[in-house]
Design goal:
CATH class of the largest domain: Alpha Beta
CATH superfamily of the largest domain: FAD/NAD(P)-binding domain
Number of helices: 13
Strand content: 15-25%
Bound molecules: flavin-adenine dinucleotide
Amino acid sequence: MVDSSIVFDVAVVGGGAAGMMAAIGAASRLGIDGKVAVLEGGQRVGRKLLATGNGRCNYSNKNITAKAYNRPDFVRRIFQACSPEDIMDRFTKSGLMTEEEEGRLYPASGTASSMVDILRLLMEEKNVSVYTEFKVLTMRWDGVFRLSSPSGMVQAEKVILACGGKAAPQLGSDGSGYKLAENLGHTVTALNPGLAGVKCPAAQQRQLGLPSLNGLHVTGTVSLYRQEKLLAQEAGEILFREYGLSGIAVFQLSRYDGDLILLDLLPKYSMPDLFTELQQRAERLSGRPLEEFFTGVFQKMVGAQLMKAIHLELEDRDCGSLTKEELEALAGIIKGWPFPVEGAVGWQNAQVTLGGLDLDEFNPLTMESKILPGLYAAGEILDVDGPCGGFNLQWAWSSGLLAGWSAARSLKPRNAG
Ligand SMILES: Cc1cc2nc3c(=O)[nH]c(=O)nc-3n(C[C@H](O)[C@H](O)[C@H](O)COP(=O)(O)OP(=O)(O)OC[C@H]3O[C@@H](n4cnc5c(N)ncnc54)[C@H](O)[C@@H]3O)c2cc1C
């Protein structure tokens, strides 16, 4: 139960990655006498963190650069104050053992709960008060901040908004933080689901073979077009879903408004080289049923759908019977398998929010609002997003820590530390 007569030095709204880090940063600077609270709407803190990196929490990346984010100039300033190396060092000193996979950093335990445990422990050590099931519905300022929820009221001298965005609302971030900021005069830019799969038109999903391909992974290159103009290209993992395409390579393209995806399943081959390879393969495998032509190259269902896509009749045919035209068509579909795109899947399946609180209204040296001094923001609630691979959590850690430090530093000198 919250004691509404206490005036906290710093109240952090949201107990996600950014909020917990902000609270740890503020409490470290304030020292033993500091009064820092985390107000979390859900039943526990770090719920989304547990779902990150497929439950393993890809918490950062060896190759983080500000250039990879949508607003590099702003992010660069934050990383100058709170660099990815500094964050990793802090985690290591706090007991986290890290494992690296192609630059991606994970807890060596193989589970995201280690990260939540470390953050909880640090909050406990630094005397941070954590209030769960405390969803802040209104916030006002009249010399002190007053934050109300159905379970009580909290007063604080400084507030850090770390409510996340709208992505994956089932994990707590339902966009309510934007309203709190808007009511205090802040602007919210256009919001869209990011790092999300793409949907193919419902009427074509069956014909594209998506129900049979659902759940299968391939690697290759994804090219996204709009009106036949190439918008962007990504290489990596592609996951077929009933509704369309997903996987890391597709996620990276979800910020663009395309209408067609072409998959290249063998990007290392040029078209002529692939044709020659397929021609030799047809000769080599002569006598084998045609439906086995791709055995050893692609998963069975992927091979079958490629053949279906070029309308190959398989019955009573063997690999050696493939004609030059058919081999050309097969090479063509492998290098450019078309999937019409209707749009990104909704918020439920998105990993981040594109858009958020307008950065022009925040000071990148402190994360403080230029509209209402004493108010700070950190993490996904701001208009910052990065690619897959630990970039979004890195943003949450760095912006959270800086906001926490700055909020504490702006309090009276008695608390400086
Ligand atoms: C499935 C999935 C996998 C992901 N995997 C990765 C990954 O491996 N690596 C990576 O870098 N990024 C990953 N991301 C993105 C990353 O999780 C987010 O960018 C990051 O968690 C944002 O942190 P945040 O603290 O700003 O917001 P959140 O983690 O969303 O936390 C916000 C918190 O605020 C609470 N809250 C919201 N409104 C209120 C309110 N009004 N009052 C009180 N509390 C409130 C919410 O309940 C929530 O706990 C993934 C995202 C998803 C959905």
